[in-house]
Amino acid sequence: MSAQSEPSPAPPQGVRRDFPIARLSTVRTGGAAEFFARAGAEEDLLRLLRWAQAAGLPVNVVGSGSNLLIADEGVAGLVLKLDRELANIERDGQTMLCGGGARLPAVAAGAARPDHASVRCWSARRSGSATHGVMSRSRGSSDGWCRA
Question: How far apart are CA 61 and CA 42, in angstroms?
Fold first, then answer.
């Protein structure tokens, strides 16, 4: 008797198939995402990640798209855009906590204020966060702080 593979679970509500992600890139070229969704809250993100894992799909996160080149063949798996709650920038005294979808210009502007000394780099390396990657590469240090 041959083993049959389990069918992939149906995509959650809000997941779009064959989404033209070139519109999310500043160069506006490239193919479609096999699946695309926006996650605006932690619960949304967890639901989408559980589905992608169950379906055996790779996951990529797109940021502002200014350093994004998309293959003409498109992107296999699930492409996520973090927004709403997951793009928040919060201040706590001298520290800023930035969600994975936070826009870098807004983070930089907040960090440049005279009453603000540093930005804590959100240690979510596996999230693919564009903000985390840029902040870590540009201003990171061995103790995890981004100095302004």
Answer: 14
